[in-house]
Amino acid sequence: MGMIRGDEYRERLQRVKPEIYYLGEKIESVATHPAFLPHVNAVALTYDMAWAPEFEELLTTKSHLTGEKINIFTHIHHSTADLVQKVKALRALGQQTGSCFARCVGHDALNAIYSVTYDMDQKNGTEYHQRFLNFLKEVQAKDLFISGAMTDPKGDRSLSPSEQADPDQYLHVVEKRRDGIVVRGAKAHITGAVNALGHLVMPTTSMKEADADFAVCFYVPVDAPGLIHIFGRQTNDERKCGCLIDQGNVEYGIVGGEALVVFDDVFVPWEHVFMCGEYDFVFELVERFATAHRQNYGGCKVGLSDALIGATYALAEVQGTAKASHIRDKLVEMVHLAETLYCCSLACSCQGYALPAGNFMADPLLANVTKLNVTRHIYEIARLAQDIAGGILATLPSEIDWQDSRVGKYVDKYLKGVASVPAETRMRLLRLIEGMTCGTALVESMHGAGSPQAQKIMIMRRANWEHKKRLAQKLAKIRERPK
Amino acid sequence: MLSSKIQVSVKYCGSCNPLIDLAKLGNALKEALSQDNDLTLVPPESARIDIMLILCGCPRACGNKEEIRARAARSIVVAGETVDLVPTPEKDISAAIMKKLKSG
To answer: What is the CATH number of domain B6-102?
Structure first.
């Protein structure tokens, strides 16, 4: 089968029947429901762009397993060039969607699990890697969109998984059978969970021997019995129903579409279990997934920033402020901040290296620096966009009033900027900026791929402190005293 | 007359931001090789190199280039705290390399 197109992805969504709830309603079809359609559209574009000649070079590659041409989101990186290609592909996609397109999470999970299953087998003589290769072949052959599900609800953060009053705060194995395992718990904030075809589930934090039941990694189809999805609210999500201009990003929404995924005694056959009890490999899996995912953010978020900077510049022109020196300075600053993030993602990719399984991982220290910068730069870019846009960003009348027979003419008259541009253009730009800089969209930059402190912990672990100290001692002619 | 000893050469990555002390490792290997009856250290430009030791400060392994590996029939790559991709604590790297050299 190989690479598919967006329409085939939409048809697949119609064929599966996952259990999904949103605003008290059980959702029958994510492929057509307005709350989910923007996220479906964004994922569909990851398929369609792979067929477009102008994007093919970034969005396709060759499978190292079969030699077949595949979508980049099912690929296992085998060089630093592969890592760089991913970053560029993410930027190109982000420019087109102006929003999260969700496929990178499952992709990063594939790469992390690929290497860790190999390492586990090398040490323990298990057969996880071959099992995973069989699964990976299927993912590539079907061009499957799978989510990556890592974050547990965590309950009391001061306690380890096995110390929780309620063990379900961390997903865990409740039964081992001859034909598979039964798992219970939940995964939170899962991007693309409602419009994926399945979930690759991983543990979320380093573990001790007592936590062995929580050290579990597996794949489940989205409609597995006992799997329940509760879709998260987003800022202004009611605008998805019936509004066009007021949505801002009409086609692709503002974030990836996150959900709380509940595992109410879900059965997983052994062929889809890739870790079960190997607590001593959990840190490795978490770090490799986090590195791959944090590498991304100077790609996709820079693509989004390109669109935001464009909207801000266009709005300044519409408002007659584009030539003011302070506006130009702020626009330049937005570009500088965005391109700095791109530099970070490219750098961690170029400094990537081979793992024992043969696949490549970005430099963990630089990947964490990338994501930590995203938690700052994207907020500053948004602040500058709001500064340039002006207070109208928060006080703009709705499109309904603009279309009203009594007051519409006033909205149109008094929202006009330069004479040659209609008020509607200004309204559309303002709504796009509002959607990209207010509420849910920004929080994704803060906490997506892990919160800032998670990056600082990794930076603390990875910084070469002793080397830095030796450099200083050498410069200051300090002789280390024998201990 | 050609030396009957196995000729070993060392090539460094360049040490931009090393996670291990490459100079210390290099000196330890030099010392170990000088005392070995079967192995001898030769410069990287030598016409005959049997084994190339590529010493890199971090996993990026910038010194692990095709043209370097091509100078010898066999290579051993240190990349941060790994020897040929096997995790190895810094204190054990020298011994791990010597074991590999002696194993032929």
So the answer is: 3.40.50
